[in-house]
Amino acid sequence: MVESGALDRIDTEPRERPRLGGSIRLRDSRLERLWRLLRLDVTGIACATLFFCWSLTPSLLPRDWLFQGLIGGINAAIGYAFGTALGWAVRRYFLRRKAWWPLPESRSTTITVFVTVTSVVVSLVMLGYSAAWQREIAGLMGAEGTSTTGYIRTGGLSLLVGGAIVSGWRLLRELVRWIAGRLIRRWHLAIPTATTAGILIVTVLFLLLVDGVLVRGIYAVANLGFSLQNSSTRDGVVQPVDPEKSGSPASFAPWDTLGYEGRNFVSRGLDAAGLTAANGTPAVNPIRVYAGLETAEDAEARMDIVIDELERTGAFQREVLVIIPTTGTGWVNPTAAQAIELVHNGNTALVASQYSFLPSWVSFLADRDKAAEAGRQLIGRVHERWLQEPEATRPKLLVYGESLGTQAGEGAFDTLTDIRQTVDGVLWVGPPNANRLWGQLIERRDPGTSEVDPEYSAGLVVRFADDAADMVDNTGEWLSPRILYVQHASDPVVWWSPDLAFTRPDWLKEPPGDDRSPSMKWFPFVTFWQVSADLTNAAGVPDGHGHNYGTLVLDGWVTVAQPEGWTPLDTMRVRTALDMLAGSEGPEK
Virtual CA dihedral for 57, 62, 65, 66, nearest 10 degrees? Predict the structure, then answer.
């Protein structure tokens, strides 16, 4: 940012007259003092306003004023930096050669006042439009919209956030100048050399601070904090007594080693009596096997206990054996687990294992390789043991994963052929955009199909669905084993990528999905931060939108598992049972 600073003696440009885009002197003494204090750049103000207004355009999910204020401030600061750099370049390489430059003080002051007032007015008008857009998105999802008057607070918060970021940048810039001044006085370096050295020193120190101290420190603190939560138990959760559950008195995996999410998983769900009442036919107690991080000292030992638990509970004699690679903390979607057991009337074995203390969003940033390795170990060991059973009697081997669990699951396979040769079906829900296999399928989708609603090889092996209607098998042959990705057009987990900062993706070039606003456009930098903000509330929207898939997992499971004799009435019955159970279990990821 090109502004006046403390180390003026290393600035070789003349300062006798005010410059457009720089710090402009105003006639009123109070305004002059305020302007000197703020040291605002007119070109920066104009670009900051442009970026702020871009950030008010619709994103994937409805946002309240607090979220919008944060994202607006970040984008305004980016725009301010761009504007000051642009203004400096224009002055240095174009205007300084003009005879009429610098402008008279009166004209410069007029331009300054005009740009500032116009920026305020345009921002207020855009806030009104933004509130209407937010109500439009909320309406698409059946959520309550915001009021225009309440949304005006966005402007004030964005001003504070943007100001804080610019102030931080100025501190770094002043540090560069201070270091350059010391180098000039001590070593008699040339001004450009000293300035370059100062920039390099501050950059290295900043990166060391962020990467070596802040990131690792935050990671360590987060790991400690979530490990403490991992040792706790949710209210109402008690140790199971059924031998079919890990953590029971008969289990090789002690109850106190399963972790917070593991204890939730094994203690919940309907027993044989509950399943019989829901389905109207005699059921058996379902099997739930789980190993927590503290169940054994390393991953290999945990897998040994998982296999021992599967053998102890008789999992290889059940109708269906489902491998569930988990999200960061070891979370398993309770709705999905219960849906599987209801569909098969308890004749199931579900197996999962924890690989981290951290929630999905932290694991996504820091533990993606660990997630893939954990999925590879779990699926590989269970499949290896499953192969030892007689082919005629061994259970159907299926894989379920949600969110980061899909990334862990994909880590076990290299290709679609590998999946088909290993398991009898896969259901992956809400896959992150960084998923390797998912990304390859999207990239190689059939010509003429969209990124948000893709088709691969005419749906012969793998399919993508947004709702239950997409899962109806009426578009040609679908070979078994089936592979199904369920993804919403409004799910930021599916569509977020660092590439959004610089490249408009196909899904923003194509017609929108059913629950994405057609008013959403792509803007450089801005869209990246907008969708990043959406991630924080990805699951906080009504069922069937964003990262909240609700009972849609039931339809996906029926599609992939293909239970014999299943009818739409059976789906309705199970969905009713799931709706009755909703809210009784399942903490957030």
Answer: -110
Q: Return the DSSP state at 399.
A: E
Angle at the Cα of 263 (from 258 to 267), degrees rounded to 5? Answer: 140
Specify if 342 maps to a domain: yes
3-state secondary structure of 140: helix
Cα–Cα distance between 59 and 75 in angstroms, integer?
A: 14
Domain range for residue 466? 231-488+549-581
d(CA 197, CA 187): 12
Q: Is residue 509 part of a domain?
A: no
Closest CA to 138 of 62, 50, 83: 62
Average pLDDT of the chain is 86
- Is residue 533 within 8 A of residue 560, CB to CB? The reply is no
Neighbours of 413 (CB within 10 A): 22
**Within-domain flag for 182:** no
pLDDT in tens, 150-205: 888 999 999 999 999 988 888 888 888 898 888 888 888 888 888 888 888 877 77
H/E/C letters for each residue in 522-583? CCCCHHHHHHHHHHCCCCCCCCCECCECCCHHHHHHHHHHCCCCCCHHHHHHHHHHHHHHCC
Question: Which segments of 387-425 does DSSP mark as H helices, in order?
Answer: 404-410, 416-422
Nearest-angstrom CA–CA distance, 28 and 49: 25
The answer to whether the CB of 60 falls within 8 A of the CB of 541 is: no
Q: Which two tokens stand for residue 399?
A: 């894989």
**236 and 377 both lie in a single domain:** yes
Q: What whole-number distance in Å separates Cα of residue 551 and Cα of residue 582?
A: 10
Partners of 425 in the β-ladder? 482
Residue 201, helix vs strand vs coil: helix
Query: Is 284 within 8 Å of 291 (Cβ atoms)?
Result: no
Alpha-carbon gap, residue 504 to 520, rounded angstroms: 12
Are 410 and 462 in contact by the 8 Å Cβ rule? The answer is no
Regarding whether 453 and 329 lie in a shared domain, the answer is yes
The lowest-confidence range among 56-60, 211-215, 246-250, 355-359 is 211-215
Specify whether the CB–CB gap between 397 and 423 falls below 8 A. yes
Q: Residue 413 pLDDT more than 90? A: yes
Amino acid at 419: I
Sheet containing strand 482-486, edge to edge, reads 287-291, 348-353, 320-323, 396-402, 425-429, 482-486, 462-465
End-of-domain residue from the set 138, 154, 172: 172
Residues 6 or more apart whose CB falls under 8 angstroms from that of 23 comprise: 3, 4, 35, 36, 39, 40, 41
Residues 50-106 have pLDDT tens digits of 999 999 999 999 988 888 998 899 999 999 999 999 998 998 888 888 888 888 888
Per DSSP, the residues of 319-353 read: SEEEE----TT----HHHHHHHHHHTTT-EEEEEE
Select from 121, 142, 172 the last residue of a domain: 172
Nearest Cα neighbor of 398 from 293, 487, 483 is: 483
* DSSP letter, residue 438: H
